[in-house]
Amino acid sequence: RFAPTITTLTGSFRSMRAWIPKNQSMQLRTNSSAQIQHVSGLPKDWQEKRSRAEQLCSRSPFYNNMTKRYELDFRERVGRMGYKVQTSVKNFQMTLEENGRQTILQL
Question: Which ranges carry the Tubby C-terminal domain (predicted)?
């Protein structure tokens, strides 16, 4: 879900919130035919039981006066061969808290 911000209305950047299932890799369900199925994805009643889901918030970019655009900090994300993440408007970082410092998900 994209959340509008003041700068969104001026065309700068957008904010995003996402809900993902908490790590429940061993959660199993048996049905009447005695088959075992792995439960994956958000449960159908996740909005009533928010304890089963984690809310991730997108990190707000900073405005770089030299490049005249909004950017995210990818300094700690240098690959094995020394390749750096190329800046793109499609890149985003998600944190567990509204203004969290630790990146949980990055694309």
Answer: 4-106
**Contacts with 44 (C-beta within 8 Å, 6 or more apart), sequence order:** none
Instruction: Determine what percent of the chain is predicted with pLDDT higher than 70.
Output: 49
For the CA atoms of 32, 38, 42, 44, the dihedral, rounded to the nearest 10 degrees, stands at: 0
Domain boundaries, the chain: 2-24+41-79+86-106
Q: What angle do CA 23, 77, 98 make, to 5 degrees?
A: 55
pLDDT digits (tens, 9 = 90+) for 7-47: 555 655 667 888 887 765 444 455 555 555 555 666 677 66
Q: What is this structure's pTM?
A: 0.54
List the one residue out of 99, 94, 103 whose CA is nearest residue 16: 94
